Structure formats: C-alpha cells, structure tokens
Amino acid sequence: MMLKLPVFSFYRHYLRQVRRLPHYYLRQFFRIKASDDFRALAATPTHKSQLRNSRIKRISKDLRRIGLAVTGRQDAFSYILDLAYGRRGKLKWELMEPLLTHANVPSLPEPIVHSRSSSRPPVYSAELSALLINTASRTNKSLELHQLKFPPTLSSRANPTSEEARLLGPLSKRLEFNTRWRYFTREWKKVYPPLEIAVKGNNGLLSTSVSDVLRAEGRILGSQDQGLLDGIKEMVGPPTEVTPITRRERFLSGIEQSQSPGRSEQHHPSRWIRRRYQALLGRVPVLILNPSFKRPTFNVSLPLNSIALVGRNAAHRRPCPDSCNLAWLERANDKLRPNDKSRSNT
Length: 346
Description:
The chain is mainly alpha-helical and 346 residues long. The protein folds into three domains: 2-84, no CATH class; 97-188, no CATH class; 197-317, no CATH class. Helices cover 48% and strands 5% of the residues. A four-stranded mixed beta sheet has the order 2-1-3-4, covered by helices on one side. Strand 3 and strand 4 form a beta hairpin. Helix 1 packs antiparallel against helix 2 (24-42), helix 2 packs antiparallel against helix 3 and helix 11 crosses helix 13. This is LYR motif-containing protein Cup1-like N-terminal domain-containing protein. InterPro entries: Cup1-like_N. It holds the Pfam family LYRM2-like. It comes from Lentinula lateritia. Residues 11-96 form the LYR motif-containing protein Cup1-like N-terminal domain.
C-alpha cells in the first residue's frame, strides 16, 4: 500500500507513527532518520526506478517495524532500540569508527609485503582489544588474547618456524594479508559499541565528561557526554527496589500508606517497556578507562540494572533481605539445627 502513496503523504504517515513511540530520544532519532531517508528519496532521479523502489521498500520496512513496535511486538521494539542506540545500522559504524583507528600506538607493525607499505596487518587498539576479549561486549563467545596476534583462521604456515612451513613451504604473503584483514573485519562487527567511555578516578567513581576523558588520554566517541546511557537508566529505574508491603501488613503494623516503602517512580510506568530497555542495557557495554602513569588499561562491564546472560544471578540483582525474610531464614536455621546434631552424633 505504501508504494502507491505520494512521497509527502508517505512522509506524514511515517511521522504520525513516530509520534507514538514512548521515549523522546526514539522520536527524535526517527524524525531525523525519516528526514534523511525521504530527502534521499526525493533526490532520486525518476529514470532510476530500481533505486527509487528499493529506497521506498526500505522505508516501508522501517515504518512497518515502528507500527509493530508501538503495538507491543517485542522483536520489532528491540529492533528499533538497536537501530536508535547503535547496536546495528549506520550509527554502529559511527560509534565503532574511532575505536578502529590505530591512534596512540607507539609503532606500526612492519608491512607483510616489504615492497608495499599498504600491506600492514590490522592494528587492534587497546579499546577494541578490551571489547573483543570480553563476553559482555560480544554477540557470541569472546576471543582469547593470543587470537588477536595470530588469528585461528590463519594457516600455521604463516609462522616460518612451524613444521608445516618447513614441509609445505611458507604461506603466500598476499594470502596472509587478506586472511588477517578478513578476520579483523569479521570480529569487530560482532562487537557491541559502547555509548561512552568512563574514566575511573582515584575515589573509584566513574566520570564520562569530555574533559576527564581527554585528560586521561582517552578517545571521544560520537555519543560521548550526550546522556544517552543516563536516559536509558532513567527509563529502567534503579537496579533493585523495595517490594511494597500489602494492605494487611500496613494495617497490622500501623503504618500509613504514604509512609510505606514502595517502588520508585523514577522510571517508565510500563513494566513491558522497562524490560525492553533493561534488555537493551545488556547490549550496551561500559568501557572503563583506568589511567596509569605507564599505560592506560580498559575494562568492560554492563550496567547494574541490565538484563543479560552475563551477571544475571549476580549479587546486585538480588534485593536486600528485609526483617520478614530474615525471620523466616532464622526459623529455617533453627529447624535444621537438631537434625545436624543428630547427624553429627551418628
């Protein structure tokens, strides 16, 4: 149906769907994306019908996903979250581009083909290496550190001292160059880019301001100090919350409803949306810069209020026990003590 609509009607229908998104950042992102996509569509020459139809089809697909997302389709909502926060698409490349360059490298490696200076192997920056070897920032299993120096897809003949090189001869330099770069490109695409780099201070607190990152000789990402990660955390709320007591418990204890501890209101009211953003936090690694006098190091972690396979049963995901839980725990321990004594006597 969308293919038969005029461009301006199509654009207005797109914006009406975008207004239904639950978060201001999502609405702003897809307004800008719609502006760019429709400007490119309007600038497409009429005689290039195949290019025009492919752009219309791509915009229609995004519009269909937005419509499914606002009606409660989980996979569609996760897709637009990944698109808006750089887990996929063009924004992912823009976030990863600063980490792929070999800045702050003391010396570049020697070219594989000595007569060609452009045949240097890929250089893994300290930030990219930390993301590759950590499970929290990968779409699949993390890599080992030695795999960055010698890829597992590279034949052992690339090592001139190996037994295969002695029997079959050394590997072609051109093949070694292509294998190393293919492995580099394939693996960095499996990395979730961080939204910002945090600097760990002497007091243990993290700072994401541009001045602190530059002072620690870190790189500035495109979304640095824009509050994207804080906006997600505001939608989700704190990691753990106190379970509100029931009306009967308030009546027996004589506590007013206004005085009873309840859930925090500093989050989105819809639990379904909060869960989608919590799952998104499980795909947003936090790159922590540890400045030192010799060489800065990087650690990777996930936000405390995220939902991910890594750290799902961690201690911060468990609420603190209240007096009622402690009473039940003590009662259970009292019942187990006589049995333990009888077992020890036998």
